[in-house]
Amino acid sequence: FPFQLTSMAIDRQDRIFVGTNNANSNLIQISKEDGSYSIVKTFDTKINDLTAWRCAAADFDQLDSDNDGVIDELDDYPNDPDAATDTFTPSALGMGTFAYEDFWPLIGDYDFNDCVIGYRFTNVLNSANESVRLKMDFTLRAAGAGFHNGFGIELDVDPNLIASVTGHSTAGGNTTLNAKGLEENQGKSVVIVYNDSFNHLRPAAGEKFINTDPNEAIIAPITFEVIVEFINPISAETLGEAPFNPFIFSSTARGKEIHLLGQAPTSLADLSLFNTEDDKTVLGTDNTYQNENNLPWAIHSIHEFRYPQEKVRINNGYNKFVDWALTRGLSYKDWYSDNPGYRNISKLYFDN
Q: How crowded is the C-beta side of 54, counted as CA atoms within 13 Å?
């Protein structure tokens, strides 16, 4: 952290707070899931110690404004009887990252900055711990691509369980949505977040890339908040586990999809592309979207991933990446961290 931390306490919701010990001390909340943090308040004095006061639920005001069985003090939605609690992936404070190499089925320049998207999923639960809606926040951070790409996410949920999808941006004619906002002709629930990254981010005048070349202008990222409403509350098992099945697709050839290693293509994928060029997918197994050495075309991290600069292969920025891929994740699970010898800082993009 860029702070000298001097004390720590944990509140009744199991959140971590720390203090700094300088003239204008900060009270900082830190996510235990991914280490992200937020300055809650700055004081005009020093914080020498923090403490947590132990109390029982019976010690709180027992007002339950929406009569859902959860008192207002512990209810994230005290005036909504259908919602009670937010759960986050990766955390309430931080965002994870999806990063794609879009030359599939060719390896390409393998810099994993053709499409870089921050993500946070918020599962809104009722008092029975059932999902009533799913909020999905996506931040398009970089597009170091010559190709035009769209972005979508497949939920392993029967489309008949979904009432509506809002917040996406699908200008263009390469996808078709039904009345609910889901993509047509899909076996599962597929949400198209946007059709073409270039509809939202463009390089500065006279330049070629978007936030991948440190010698070019920084372009402000854009965020989408997509909300999936369920007809009736569904169980956690029915919803499945985040980050679900995110993918990019060609804006000019909808069937060309690129998913995370081990994930299945959607119903609209062009299956003739598999096992061409460098791809060694075995459909129907978890050996999908990989080459003969288990190298993927898409990765995700629960952190804000520092992706390589333009035309820099990811293994030249992250020394342990290939070892991680060759073992299918058994070795160097922390390949993306800043441990000594892991990263070549001069090869990574740090400007946004």
A: 0
Q: Who's near 203: CB < 8 A, 6+ residues apart?
A: 209, 210, 216, 219
Summarised one tens digit per residue, pLDDT across range 305-345 is 999 999 999 999 999 999 999 998 899 999 999 999 999 99
Q: Give the burial string for 195-219 (b: 16+ CB within 10 Å, else e).
A: bbbbbbbebeeeeebbbbbeebeeb
Please say if the pLDDT value at position 214 is more than 90.
yes
Q: Distance between CA atoms of 38 and 110, rounded to whole angstroms?
A: 33
β-bridge mates for residue 229, sequence order: 133, 164
The residue length of the chain stands at 352
Helices (H), 271-350: 314-317, 321-326
Tally of helices (H runs) and strands (E runs) in the chain: 3, 15
Amino acid, single-letter form, for residue 238: T
H/E stretch holding 349:
none
